[in-house]
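Is this the right way to post structure tokens for a design question? Let me know if I should format differently. Anyway, here goes:
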């Protein structure tokens, strides 16, 4: 007889369904090219539902979502979770209120990460859409979106993220030449944050391209 699952299977069905529906829409916008990107949803205090590594994120089905514990270990499956699982679990472990982490590779995010890697952040100020970030109530505010150097070593990346989180409250970060991580208390909030970053980065890139070369 099989051992009982340490999580609620109905919760997995619910979380996987949310991931599949939302990620399909993000993929249709071209934000998950060539199997890139990864997505997760907190199931309970000890488990998250996360995409299996290497899958085409535009065609996810229930079999492409698996369960890992807060140390990133697969639970009741021999599938391999996202290569970037640690960047998800570190957020869930640190912030019990976080319920969803979304990582995408749109062209806007990738170009912005290259342009602002030297500065180490993208400064966003004066936009009405800054109110999309939880806690902001006016456009008269500033958000610094950090840009981290890329690494294939997840422990190096996670250490950089932890150092940033020690210093500032944030809802996302860019990785140079790579993409964007954004999160929130639930899927709707994480998606709102992701879409807001995408829109604001697009605005900044367009403003830059409209500036005369002498002012750049
Ligand atoms: C296809 S290249 C992108 C990957 O290296 C990685 O950055 C990524 O986002 C997807 O990795 P995955 O292991 O499928 O979660
Ligand atoms: Zn990635």
């Amino acid at each position: 007889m099989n051992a009982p699952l340490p999580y609620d299977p109905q919760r997995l069905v619910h979380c996987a369904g949310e991931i599949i529906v939302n990620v399909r829409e993000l993929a249709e916008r071209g934000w998950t090219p060539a199997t890139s990107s990864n997505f997760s949803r907190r199931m309970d205090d000890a488990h998250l539902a996360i995409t299996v590594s290497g899958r085409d994120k535009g065609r996810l089905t229930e079999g492409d979502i698996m369960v890992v514990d807060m140390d990133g270990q697969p639970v009741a499956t021999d599938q391999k979770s996202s290569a970037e699982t640690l960047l998800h679990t570190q957020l869930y472990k640190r912030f019990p209120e976080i319920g969803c982490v979304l990582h995408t590779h749109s062209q806007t995010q990738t170009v912005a990460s290259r342009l602002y890697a030297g500065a180490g952040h993208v400064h966003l100020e004066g936009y009405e859409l800054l109110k999309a970030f939880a806690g902001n109530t006016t456009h008269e505010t500033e958000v610094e979106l950090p840009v981290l150097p890329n690494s294939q070593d997840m422990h190096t990346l996670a250490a950089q993220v932890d150092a940033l989180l020690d210093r500032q409250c944030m809802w996302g970060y860019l990785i140079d030449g790579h993409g964007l991580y954004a999160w929130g208390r639930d899927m709707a909030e994480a998606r709102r944050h992701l879409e807001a970053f995408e829109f604001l980065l697009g605005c900044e890139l367009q403003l830059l391209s409209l500036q005369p070369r002498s002012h750049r």
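Format looks fine. Someone answered above. Worth noting: Helices lie at 9-28, 85-94, 107-115, 154-167, 187-210. The first strand starts at residue 38 and ends at 42.
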